[in-house]
């Protein structure tokens, strides 16, 4: 349960202000680690990303949110060298990163994970972890033939890998093929693997997608853990509740642009952001009849459908009074 | 009279230079495909390039043996660069198209009349083995293995060939259990994942292409020493034999391609012999001309059955089998 206590305390621990100027899209940060300027990417005539100016605060957890197709993942790909922009520059830790190939971006301490998990299923969990390590001479062709040159580093790497695996509760799986892990465990493995290189900025593309609620809790704990050990985290997420729980700062993208940013509470409360980018009914649970009714009434679908839902609601209410144990769950 | 001599001859196929050559080239192919995931459909091209560099420098320029071998290795490396630089940045399938085409281009180019002075045209090149046979330590007499008599030169190339196979197997085995091997195995599955961990994927793919190509070249040299260099021996048929051999033994194993080569040639010889017998006794309605292609039909069917029912081959682990092609 240590995970839960970790994120109960976290927001309070960040007393240092992130910005001093009035909050607006592209506001300068007190201590930025990543600064992007004029980054645009077009696919044909379609502008997927058009970010004028954005800064990511150092040592904080920043959430990048926005509707599907807002360009969040494309922006991620551009920043990490997996895609090339049509224009734009960005600096990481003061050094220019535009045009730097993906593998060099990673070597500079900016490591990412992927929306569709890329754990390597045909390698063991431990080999996956070792792959993330740096400074292994045995990765070069000629030295690889002479194990005495790299076996010491290899055992250091293995120790570190086992330590991280233990932290992510995957140590018992170390010798299994990664393909045998569950979806959630693969997410954990990918995150642990990214940490093998001691990055300064960890970029997580939808870390919670497809993960069950119990594992989400521990994932959240791990992300907060990254911040505690001095790393900066930038992550893409759709679940607003999670963003509110762990993010120190939120950047909202829509149609390729940064349309809003700010402290999570304020951004979430911003009615314009909510309506335009999260959907007017983001708080409505579509799994319930009352939720469906509210939407049906507003959208103005046929009266028949509305009546039907109302009838069902009444029936349900009757059932509930008969069977008290079911109350409220449906 | 039925001709049963193919039966004892088949045993000699186990150690023949042809088996050695295909074992080496298939091992190279497993570095490409089995371990790194590179779809090379032009391994015959790598063999051909190396063989021509070896034979031309030895016979036309009088290079000593070591220099000819070096030239062959340089040739294979250059060929890997030529194919790899434009294609390895693209999706895997581009490499397969380019390699199969390049191998055919080479096969036709060496046969053009204008190059006959160097390449010997469609007759190929004889006599490239002189430098190799000069080093032969075996006394000149007849050596009998089974029913087959061997000359001292035959024995020499067989011994060197198998030593080479053992060294190559050791080399690939060590390579693949090293951190280098870990990276290429990562690349075969998802190169973006490996890239995101700070590895220069392109450089590793190019290295793998060169290493596998060099193994193919060494195989080709062993192949031409006891016979001669024939351009038409390095067509697509050779490439598909190599794929069958590799998949038969197990693409992600070191022993697989070697044992696969032995099994492949033994089975091919046996089926050839039995089809001959069946045709002679009129059990199969085949003419002598028709017998030849039948064995290729058998190879094709075997390859299909293998991929469907045992994609990991004889020695491979089921969990490591990969056909994301």
TrEMBL record, chain B:
Species, as recorded: Gryllotalpicola kribbensis
Topology of this chain in the membrane: Multi-pass membrane protein
TM helices/strands, residue ranges: 20-42, 63-85, 155-176, 206-225, 237-255, 262-280, 292-309
Matches recorded under CDD domains: TM_PBP1_LivM_like (cd06581)
A family per Pfam: BPD_transp_2
Protein location: Cell membrane
Name used for this protein in its record: Branched-chain amino acid ABC transporter permease
Keyword Cytoplasm set for record: no
Keyword Ubl conjugation part of the UniProt annotation: no
Sorted UniProt keywords: Cell membrane, Membrane, Transmembrane, Transmembrane helix
InterPro entries in the record: ABC_transp_permease (IPR001851), LivM-like (IPR043428)
